[in-house]
Write a structure and sequence with these properties.
With about 350 residues, the chain is an all-alpha fold. It is about 70% helix and about 0% strand. Helix 3 packs across helix 6 (about 115-140) and helix 3 packs across helix 13. The chain is globular, with a radius of gyration of 22 Å.
């Protein structure tokens, strides 16, 4: 697709979303919404914010599970990058903070970006696995609105596909990286080498123990998100049941891979309110709860991200950063490698 056409389509989609959000906002009783926000319990909101931060820590641990085999053994670095990336996601569209995470760790740990990107791809895969597992179980065993019940076949198909992918990664031969010929001095030659190293890294760090740990951590992370939503609803004295909270969490994250607005503000409130209404609850109060959820999710995390991001962006390397054209060494499954994976 030509860049000009892609830019035009992106602008058109953004304009359509903004129009829909304006139409949605015009139907909101903002006086009732503000009353729900103003009377919320501060201690419970603080507790919800801490639960949300705990879920980010769990996600950092999940990424660290895959970072350690490639030589990034510092959990503090993984945590800083995860928080900074989450903070940037709140001010950028299309999850731009994920790309920043790769840059942050690659610069700080002196590891090729292809290697870090491979570990992040696995971490993001298990975020999706956790979500699809939650979705599949919810639509199978819980009484959800019809709009969510309709996605049951797709959820089960996605879950089966992901399990098949994980099984293939575990059975995939662990190819030893041979001494490569000089990389072709063309952009497609460099691109081919980059993705070749990315694929080799994914295969090298894939192991049953790491996958099991990542799956458990994904379940914990999503459970903490459910708790965050539920405690926030209680803070606003909103009678949201646990089933309704799970349904709302599923609804607002249906498009979690794509953020059409910074922090998904607006779309989040619309999806949460629509789910609450489907359970017979008040729409304006639901919007108030949705704003409170996003406030305690966005503000503390973004503040931490702003504090941490400059450390990564402007940090001067004490030694030369490893060349991204370096090879990924042989890594046996479950066996750590040296800190610098480009070193023979």
């Amino acid at each position: 697709m030509k860049p000009a056409l892609k830019h035009t389509l992106r602008l058109g989609l953004t304009a359509l979303i903004l129009v829909m959000l304006v139409l949605f906002a015009r139907k909101v009783n903002w006086h009732a919404t503000w009353a729900g926000i103003r009377t919320a319990s501060i201690p419970l909101l603080v507790a919800a914010a801490l639960l949300n931060l705990a879920s980010i820590v769990v996600k950092a641990i999940r990424w660290w599970v895959f970072l350690r085999p490639v030589g990034v053994t510092s959990f503090a670095l993984a945590l800083k990058a995860t928080v900074a990336g989450a903070g940037l996601n709140n001010v950028l569209v299309a999850n731009g903070g994920e790309a920043a995470r790769v840059v942050f760790v690659s610069r700080s740990a002196h590891v090729p970006s292809a290697t870090i990107l491979a570990t992040l791809a696995l971490e993001r895969l298990f975020e999706l696995v956790g979500y699809v597992t939650l979705l599949s179980l919810a639509v199978t065993f819980l009484d959800l609105p019809h709009s969510l019940e309709r996605v049951k076949p797709f959820a089960i198909a996605m879950l089966v596909g992901m399990l098949a992918l994980l099984g293939w990664l575990l059975r995939r031969p662990n190819v030893v990286a041979e001494l490569a010929a000089p990389i072709a001095p063309t952009w497609h030659g460099r691109m081919r080498d980059y993705f070749s190293r990315l694929g080799r890294t994914i295969g090298a760090v894939s192991s049953a123990p790491r996958f099991a740990a990542a799956l458990v951590l994904s379940v914990i992370a999503w459970a903490l998100q459910v708790a965050t939503y539920q405690v926030t609803a209680h803070a606003a004295n909103y009678p949201m049941t646990l089933v309704a909270t799970i349904a709302a969490l599923i609804a607002v994250n249906l498009g979690f891979a794509l953020r059409a607005t910074p922090g998904n503000v607006g779309l989040f409130q619309a999806a949460y309110a629509a789910t609450a209404v489907a359970f017979g609850l008040d729409r304006d109060q639901a919007i108030a709860v949705a704003f409170l959820i996003q406030a305690q999710q966005i503000l503390p995390v973004t503040l931490l991200g702003v504090v941490l991001a400059p450390e990564f962006i402007f940090k001067k390397s004490k030694r030369r950063v490893a060349d991204d054209t370096g090879e990924v060494p042989h890594m046996s499954r479950g066996e750590p490698v040296d800190r610098d994976p480009t070193r023979p």
